[in-house]
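Q: For a teaching session next week I want to show students how multiple molecules come together into a single three-dimensional assembly. I've collected the sequence lines for a complex. Could you give me the predicted structure tokens for the whole thing so I can convert them for display?
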Amino acid sequence: MKRMQTNNRLLMWIDERLPIFSYSDENLVSYPTPKNLNYWWNYGSIAGIVLVIMIVTGIFLAMNYQPHTDVAFQSVERIVRDVNYGWLLRNLHMNGASMFFIVVYIHMFRGLYFGSYKAPRELLWMIGVTIYVVMMATAFMGYVLPWGQMSFWGATVITNLFSALPVIGEYIVVWIWGGFSVDAPTINRFFVWHYLLPAVILGLVVVHMWALHIHKSNNPLGIEIKSPADMMPFHPFYTIKDLFGLGIFFMFFSFFVFFAPDFLGHPDNYIPANPMVTPPHIVPEWYFLPFYAILRAIPDKLGGVLAMAAGILVLYVLPWLDTSKVRSATYRPIYKQLFWIFVANALFLGWLGQKPAEGAYLIMGRLSTAYYFLFFLVLPLVGRFEKPKQLPVSIFEEVAKKCRTKED
Amino acid sequence: MSDNSNTAPAGATAEQIADEIESAPRRDFLLMSTTALGVAGVGMAMWPFIHSINPAKDVLALASTDVDLSAIEVGQAVTVMWRGKPVFIRHRTEEEIAAANEVSLDELRDKQTDSERVQKPEWLVAVGVCTHLGCIPSGQKLGDKKGDFGGWFCPCHGSHYDSSGRVRKGPAPFNLAIPEYTFTDETSIVIG
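A: Of course. Below is the structure for the complete assembly, covering every listed component.
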């Protein structure tokens, strides 16, 4: 590590014993970053900020929330009506969850398009997938806490997924519930997990950053960093670019928080949980809908659950499914098309997930599910038969081409 | 960092170096204004969080207590709850009132006359929380220790209060607090 240069003797004294200043300089200030990162590279830092917002609003919500079946619903209503700025904290947290998924999905699609999962960044990608899985568990349990009808029936349906497992399924479900249905013990432990898992996510983010800083960021050209001329310091170039993107993101976020706080939720969740009545139309939160569509496309209980799990877990082996050495889809004519169909298909699956599972929707759901998996399964072949375009020589040369000189 | 930002890359032309020097103050201004705005924004965003753990509206709505005094005989005392704390209400005897008035102010740690502490001499209304470290003094019930001055005695660290609720001995620095209260009629009060 390069030592920080300063005339301040106190800072020097601290830095010699605990090099926090040298470390921050190395990783945040002079940290070498490819010169050509575009705005798709903003979403990692935005996701980090959203995580912080979720944790801080969550801590303050927890100070007024009560995880008991008798009072959970009222305690959330009390937060919104009586607690000072409780409405703001709740709207930030509730919509923050959706924002987190929007940002993380864009971040993941970015990685998918530009081949950020390829060697030597396989572990970086896999840690990211793990963060995504833990995020889903956290979001699911958070949705149970307000104890509305959707909370209760969502919890019932999702936990019952485990009952599909042969032999042990029933025991696992009873174990998860702490009883014979979703009830007081369930909400109590879900609250504990919901409070604990963000700390796990935070730890995983640290490891994610660690792995990122070993081989540095990928870039839109997908080619290696070859010389110092390909890079520039993170600060001020990317701090300001990230801040600008963050500002735009906050406008988008604020629109939902202040003008449409319930737009992304479901009105049935404002009816207190009733174990005796299932609402006529059960839908998970929007960010689970594509996987929900996969679940319903398979006409078999265990098969559906396995397909849904596979839909997520296949991401772990993606670095080995894709055999092409070229990272960026810009230079991969076939993969590029498959990718955009995959994006459209994922959105379409999400749309199907909130439609009734019958008739034409079911058929479309099956075709769509088939493409979802086909995309991953043909990757090894695409890598072998696709003829990539000519790759640029260096990042520096590409950037220089686009730069205007003073004479322009 | 700021030293680096003013240096042009190696091999720069004289023109480029001049350009760098010219744009440095502009860059410093941008950095400082961005930082100032960011700090102000974060500072303002902190307020909703800080305020959210202040008493909520439903807590404030329950911040007063009505008490019917008609059933309390002379010499009796009752304890009512107000804002989660005990409030001592004592229907004082003539002797207790006289004893409270006889004390000279010089003897008191927290100098207050009895008339400053009551609205009607026969009714003493005081917050039943010792001003030392928050325990509840004994002396409300028959047979309780009332301390050396016929009022209350705090079992935690031995503070003695007289029949006006004034501290007379022990570590407590102040007299028992008098809550805001008003007589709504002859025999009822509302505290808070």
